[in-house]
Amino acid sequence: MQSYRSIFRPDLFAGQTVIVTGGGSGLGRCAAHELRSLGARLALIGRTRSKLEEVREELGDPDTVIHAADLRREDEVKAAIDIVLAATGRIDGLVNNAGGQFPAKLRDISLNGWNAVVANNMTATFLVSKEVYLRWMEANGGAIVNVGADWELGMPGMGHNGAARAGQANFTYTASVEWAHSGVRVNSVVPGFIASSGLDRYPESAHGVLRGVVGRVPLKRHGTESEIAAAIVFLLSEAAAYITGIQVRVDGGLHNNARSSFYTVPDHDRSKPYNGFPLYRPPKMLS
Question: CB-based burial of residue 110 (10 Å sphere; 0-12 exposed, 13-18 middle, 19+ buried)?
C-alpha cells in the first residue's frame, strides 16, 4: 500500500499513544492513517467495531487498539480508557472526533433528537476528555484536539448542532485554562465543508446545498480529509507547544465571507487541494 504523504517528519509521535474517537470512517480514519505514519501508537474508539477493524487492517498494525463504545455513556467511556491504558500504558494525545447531527428546523426537532445531538457532539467530548485527563494527562501532560463546527453565526437548519458545538467550544476554552498547570493543551479544529464520507449520510434533500456551497467558499472548493488531519496533527505536535484554547478554522475562508453583501468572490481554480491519503475516496453525493 502507498504510504501516507504527510508533510510532517515520520517519527514525530514515536513512543506516544494517541486516541482517535470516531476513528472508523471519514475524518477520524484519515487522521488515524496520518498519525500512524508519524509513529503514533493508536487507539481507535467508535460505535461500530467492524469499521474500527477495517481501519486497523488498512493500517497494517495489529498493535492498534480498537474498542467499540457509546461515548455518551460515562461507564462505557471509563471502560474504554481502562482498555487503552492496559494496552499502551499512556495517553499522550486525544482527538475528539466522534459526533453526529442531522438537518432539521428548530420547530421540528424532538427532545430526543435534541438530546442525542448534544450528547454526541458536546457531552461525549467532555466525558472522554475528563477521563483521559484524570487517568493520565493530569500527572503527565498531553494534548487534546476537539473537532467541532462553525457555530458563531448560529446554525439555522441545524440548531441542535449549533448549540452543541458552541458548548463544545466553550469547554475547549475553559479546559485550556483549568488544565494548563498540568501541561495539557486543549484546542479545536473547525472544518468547513469537507469532501468526506460523512456527506453521504445526509439526506438527498441536503445534497444540493452541500454541492453548491463551493460558490460561497472563497477558495471555491470543498476541503479534503487530509487538510483537516494536518491541522489536527499540528495542534497535537510540539510545534504547537505555546498554542492552547483556540479554534482553527479549516474552511476555505467561508466564515469570513458569510456576511458579505457587497463583494462576490470571482470564480477561480487557484486553490490547489492537499491530499496525502492514498485510500481517500470522494463521497458519492459529490460525484
Answer: exposed
Say how far apart CA 38 and CA 206 lie, in whole Å: 36
Question: Which pLDDT score is estimated for 262?
Answer: 81
Contact by Cβ (8 Å): 71, 45:
yes
Nearest of 81, 79, 154, 168 to residue 117 by alpha carbon: 168
Whole-model pTM: value is 0.95
Q: Which three cell numbers stand for residue 36?
A: 500512524
Residue with cell 479545536: 188
Three cell numbers, residue 67: 474498542
The answer to whether residues 124 and 98 touch, using CB atoms and an 8 Å cutoff, is yes
CA–CA distance from 144 to each of 80, 171, 241 (Å)?
Answer: 17, 12, 12
Identify the burial level of 73 via C-beta atoms within 10 angstroms of its C-beta, where 0-12 means exposed, 13-18 middle and 19 or more buried: middle
- Per-residue pLDDT reduced to its tens digit, 160-206: 999 999 999 999 999 999 999 999 999 999 999 999 988 888 888 88
Query: Torsions phi, psi of 7, nearest 5?
Result: -85, -5
Strand intervals (E) in the chain: 17-21, 41-46, 65-68, 93-96, 142-147, 184-191, 247-250
H or E segment to which residue 166 belongs: helix 159-178
How far, CA to CA in Å, does 41 sit from each of 5, 76, 86, 230, 235? 18, 22, 13, 17, 17
CA distances to 34, 57, 106, 204 from 155, in Å: 31, 37, 10, 19
Domain boundaries, the chain: 17-252
CATH topology of domain 17-252: Rossmann fold (3.40.50)
Cell (9 digits) for 76: 462505557
